[in-house]
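ERR on first pass: missing label on line 2. Operator R.T. fixed the label and resubmitted. Corrected input:
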Amino acid sequence: MSAFLIFIVLIVLVGFFFAGMYNSLIKLRNRVKNAWSQIDVQLKRRHDLIPNLIETVKGYMTHERDTLENITKARAGAMGASSVAEKAKAESALSGALGKFNLVVENYPDLKANQNFLALQEELTSTENKISFARQSYNDQVLFYNNKIEMFPSNIMANMFNFKQEEFFEVENEAEREAPKVKFN
Amino acid sequence: MWELIQSNKRKSLILFLAMGIILLLLGYFIGGMFLGTNGGGELGVFFALLIWAVVSLVSYFAGSSIMLSVSRAKEVTKEVHPQLFNIVEEMKIASALPKIPKIFIINEEAPNAFATGRSPENCAVTVTAGLLSRLNRDELQGVIAHEMSHIKNRDILYMTFAGVMLGTIVIVSEVFLRGLWFGGGSLNRYKNRSSGGGSGQAVIAIAALVLAILAPILARLLYFAISRKREYLADASGVRLTRYPEGLASALEKLADNRLDLRAANKATAGMYIVNPLKKKGMKLSDLTSTHPPISERVRILRNMSQGAGYMDYQNAYMKVKHKTERLIPNSVLDSNEKVTIRDTSVSKETIDKKNYRRNLGDLVMNVNGYSFVHCVCGLTLKIPPTYKKSEIKCPRCGRINKVPPRNKL
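pass 2 clean. output:
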């Protein structure tokens, strides 16, 4: 009788243990999803800011049509991207275009005195930061989640209920890192 | 991140237990001395716990509003300082906090900052006007990251409760010692009345006396040790958020340069700030009894983080600078494979010169007080006080009529 009771108690305990493990995996997966949506919010915000920016600087930067067109093009490309990898690539192209724009701005003191532009530039800088912080936080969550899936004992649970590894948001920094080319004649 | 919070919780528990035991012993011996050995000790313990519970409840529910009103902080909207709001939001994203904290500004020139609130859902970040006008974007980000780390690591809640415990111990022993000083006669009266006290009572009296003198000192040392450690930890977590140690390092240097006292701060609130706001008194205190580690040391640790911006890197720099083998963060919570690269900032390394600093400060103070700014086409900026009621204003330089923007309510 008592052996039977102990057996029941053991079963219940093991059940609780697995339920807890399952719940914590769900929680982690939701955190990853939430972090991803944070990135999306900021990317959208950047896309919204760009037309405003172009409108403000157009009058000042008549000689920089190429730079401005590049930004517009990169924005269109980024808005069309769908998968994580695609998005990462398109968005880093956009970051690169904006980075070049920031370098060019230094040549326009009038523009840098414009209050409207300064406010817009602060918003843009901050949005860039928010994107990279959101990415950082997303990657942190993904790392934590992926580790949990791989490690014993939670890997048993992950296999049983088909928890899959999540993709990191890696940025190929080619466009961003590309140094401005300066010619000395 | 989460493991670090767990390990913090465990350590805080040990601190609480130690302080709690000191408080209980104090209550027991004082009670035993005044009310006799029959149940007097238990009554003393009861009163000590009662005082502690009342103060704890008050500080849990009203602590942050008391702190904010004592330091004369004003809640502001985004229009007052868009950059500050943006930076706080950036750090909210980086630290994955559930909500953006409320933002307050203190209209004072001494640069400083603190965070308040009992939980991440219910918190606030406060900075002084002097801080905002002195620091550039990266430096401000470093300071905000430090404050948000206090919120994330639950430092505020723990330090508030530790502070309350310390306060209770100090109050109880102070009242006891003063009562003894002014009412020595009454002690004898109690003694004579107690039935068969004799030598046992005398031993308890001596124990109470010794404890009343030692307990506050012991509790203070415990409290300060933990508080300093948490400052280092907040530096480490902050840098991990911004990935840019130099930002916080140069901000701390600027804060150390300051020779002004923060008038809104006092001895009780000093521990909450990022650097000690009471410089002139604070400098003379020895290392053992200050709530903050010396700034120069914090800066040196940050500057020694050449490998990366993770906890591991901070720990290595910490041990190198302090010549210690003792670890700041237990190894079990560190991921030795974690690679956190330092970001190279694309933001211009703007410097703020004296003239600009004065103008920034003046504008900010006006802004917080509800002034609005109108930029006339001729280049003049009109500063309009909140008492100006008309919807248009004439530019004194060029005579153009400018519209006054509608007031944002504070």
